[in-house]
Design brief:
CATH topology of the largest domain in chain B: Rossmann fold
Largest sheet of chain B: 6 strands, mixed
Strand order of the largest sheet of chain B: 7-8-9-3-10-11
Order of helices and strands of chain A: HHHHHHHHHHH
Largest interface: A-B, 21 and 25 residues
Keywords (chain B): ATP-binding, Cell inner membrane, Cell membrane, Hydrolase, Membrane, Molybdenum, Nucleotide-binding, Transport
Order of helices and strands of chain B: EEEHEEEEHHHEHEHEEHHEEEEEEEEHEE
CATH topology of chain A: MetI-like fold
Number of helices of chain A: 11
Distance between the termini of chain B: 30 Å
Largest sheet of chain A: none
Oligomer: heterodimer
CATH architecture of the largest domain in chain B: 3-Layer(aba) Sandwich
GO molecular function, one term (chain B): ATP hydrolysis activity
Number of domains of chain B: 2
Radius of gyration of chain B: 22 Å
CATH class of the largest domain in chain B: Alpha Beta
GO cellular component, one term (chain B): membrane
CATH class of chain A: Mainly Alpha
Number of strands of chain B: 21
Structural class of chain B: alpha+beta
Helix content of chain A: over 70%
Pfam families (chain B): ABC_tran, TOBE
CATH architecture of chain A: Orthogonal Bundle
InterPro entries (chain B): AAA+_ATPase, ABC_SmlMolc_Importer, ABC_transporter-like_ATP-bd, ABC_transporter-like_CS, Mo/tungstate-bd_C_term_dom, ModC_ABC_ATP-bd, Mop_domain, P-loop_NTPase
Strand content of chain A: under 5%
CATH superfamily of chain A: MetI-like
Helix content of chain B: 10-25%
Number of strands of chain A: 0
Chain lengths: 222, 366
């Protein structure tokens, strides 16, 4: 059992969720409330990672993270090591790759709030931030919960992108999914089986727990 | 502080009007749906910005498109009751009220809920309240900000008739606490006439006629927009007491009126809405008639419109009632201003929701 790989996967999933939570709140709300020219294009761009093969996506990430690209070069200058084949690069790729899983449910959650409630909040003297905190977040909560669960579970299971952008450096970019693949390649069916079962158990427990929690929140709200 | 509004806009609805509402005054914006009433209310609240407009209230300017002043809704001290009430579903009644306070104050929330007769339901969520109770929470929430202007957007349209009567009475009872300008949007003439001090009839975004309810009711042009069958006069009355047969005796300027289904303690001042098309005129005092309410009156004016109808203005003591009869009938009876006639009112023709307690500023029935 490769515990290091498991913890790396959990760490990656936790970082991805932590970064995407505020992003999905802001972007999801923006897309739900505003209408503007090119909104369809923005929504399509957000959804793009869902339809592209991880190899295509990973290829472009590799190009963007490389030392010859502006982003990669800037990173190298600021932190002294390259972005590809690093944990930070993996987090960045994971964040972008999970945009549809985070933003789409959050957007639906905000869209479900009647316009009159937002208007009532501002006519109650609430500033936009206060209205977001007191009225919109509690009501959009089920959508945000779904977004975070999907992101977490999807990151745990991600394989192609991790392989393309991260390689398989133990303790840095070798996640549990990669470790399982390594074990299978090495004909270690027992090792692969244990890790696969562990991943199934953790994923199932995470999703069950969050849905149970969100059901409780839902009861409190209604 | 007076609410002062002037609005000009081309889209989505052409608007061109101006009006003032004094503190403590309730003004009704009436007109058919699509006439722009709600848009006017939204412009006052800051939920919509017209092309050219000026709104001032509470001693400050909220919107002045020429001076580029446009306060967002949360910086306008406005209380609004939405047609759908728009209560926050995840908060209890008391939390909804407190949500509109700069600093949450539970005691003040309970006081406001008691004011709308909901003190024992303050811990219920909106889903656990009836439509009428939700409306009263919305009213309490609108007052929680101590608003400079209170806006009511068709607040009685989502409930059944019996509940509506109670809510009407609730607003009348609340009037003593409403010392800010109040604007009521409604398409219901009965509601406007019973609740409001003044009316502004809106038609396709323009103010057709503004003034006291009596003035608007006497205006043929305003009447065309509202529907001629809505024409009615308000007769001030005081409850005298119940009769043995179930009717209630009301004292009016010209003698008693007997009406069914009137609730209230003796001495209660009322407004009774007398529909013009329900009034029958007679030269001689009729005898052997099933209608029991016969009121002597003096004709002050005869106003004919485009159709075969004629509006007869009658002085009853120092109040005015209106009778809508045909021009043919008026000719046969040779009616002329100054004549004395008898107005016949059928007791059963006064609908229960056409009788309401008088607002506090009505002086005792004259």
């Amino acid at each position: 059992m490769d515990w290091k790989a498991l913890f790396l996967s959990l760490e990656l999933a936790a970082w991805t969720v932590a970064i995407l939570l505020p992003v999905s709140v802001l972007m999801g709300r923006f897309l739900a409330v505003r209408s503007f020219r090119g909104k369809g294009l923005v929504e399509a761009l957000v959804m793009l990672p869902l339809v592209l093969p991880p190899t295509v996506f990973g290829f472009y990430m590799l190009l963007a993270f490389g030392r010859n690209a502006p982003l990669g070069a800037l990173w190298q200058q600021m932190f002294g090591h390259q972005l590809v084949f690093s944990f930070e690069g993996l987090v960045l790729a994971s964040v972008i790759f999970n945009l549809p899983f985070a933003i789409q449910p959050a957007q639906r959650g905000f869209e479900a709030i009647p316009v009159a409630l937002r208007e009532a909040a501002s006519c109650c003297g609430m500033s936009p931030w206060r209205a977001l905190w007191r009225v919109e977040l509690p009501l959009a909560w089920p959508g945000l919960m779904t977004a975070m669960v999907l992101t977490f579970a999807h990151t745990l299971g991600e394989f192609g992108i991790v392989l393309m952008v991260g390689g398989s450096i133990p303790g840095e970019t070798k996640t549990i999914a990669i470790a399982i693949y390594d074990r299978v390649q090495a004909f270690d069916d027992r090792g692969a089986g244990i890790m696969a079962a562990t991943l199934v158990a953790i994923s199932l427990a995470t999703i069950t727990l969050t849905y149970a929690l969100s059901a409780r929140v839902g009861r409190r709200l209604s | 502080m007076t609410l002062s509004v002037s609005i000009r806009a081309d889209a989505p609805i052409p608007l061109d009007l101006a009006f003032d509402v004094a503190p403590g005054e309730l003004m009704a914006l009436v007109g058919p749906s699509g006439s722009g009433k709600t848009t006017i209310l939204r412009s006052i609240a800051g939920l919509w910005t017209p092309t050219t407009a000026r709104v001032s209230a509470g001693g400050g300017v909220w919107l002045d498109t020429q001076a580029r002043v446009n306060l967002p809704p949360h910086r306008r001290k406005v209380g609004i009751v939405f047609q759908s009430y728009a209560l926050f579903p995840h908060m209890t009644a008391a939390q909804n009220v407190m949500a509109a306070m700069p600093i949450a104050d539970r005691d003040e929330a309970e006081r406001l809920l008691a004011l709308v007769n909901l003190h024992d339901l303050s811990d219920r969520k909106p889903a656990q309240l009836s439509g009428g109770q939700q409306q009263r929470v919305a009213v309490a929430r609108a007052l929680a900000r101590r608003p400079d202007v209170l806006l009511l957007d068709e607040p009685f349209s989502a409930v059944d008739r019996a509940t509506r009567e109670k809510l009407h009475a609730g607003i009348i009872a609340l009037r003593a606490h409403l010392n800010m300008p109040v604007v009521l949007v409604t398409h219901d003439m009965n509601e406007a006439q019973l609740l409001a001090d003044r009316m502004l009839v809106i038609d396709r975004g323009r103010s057709l006629r503004g003034g006291t309810t009596a003035q608007v009711m006497a205006d043929p042009e305003a009447l065309r927009a509202m529907g001629i069958r809505e024409v009615a006069a308000l007769l001030p009355a005081v409850i005298s007491g119940p009769e043995e047969d179930g009717l209630t005796r009301l004292d009016t300027a010209t003698g008693p009126l007997f009406l069914p289904g009137v609730q209230g303690a003796p001495g209660t001042r009322l407004r009774v809405r007398i529909m013009a098309h329900e009034v029958i005129l007679s030269r001689a005092r009729p005898v052997g008639l099933s209608a029991q309410n016969i009121v002597p009156a003096t004709i002050t004016a005869l106003v004919s419109g485009e159709g075969p109808g004629l509006m007869v203005h009658l002085a009853v003591g120092d109040t005015e009632i209106l009778a809508r009869i045909t021009r043919r009938a008026a000719a046969e009876m040779a009616l002329a201003p100054g004549d004395t006639v008898h107005a016949v009112l059928k007791a059963m023709s006064v609908a229960r929701d056409h009788i309401l307690a008088a607002p506090p500023q009505d002086s005792a029935a004259r």
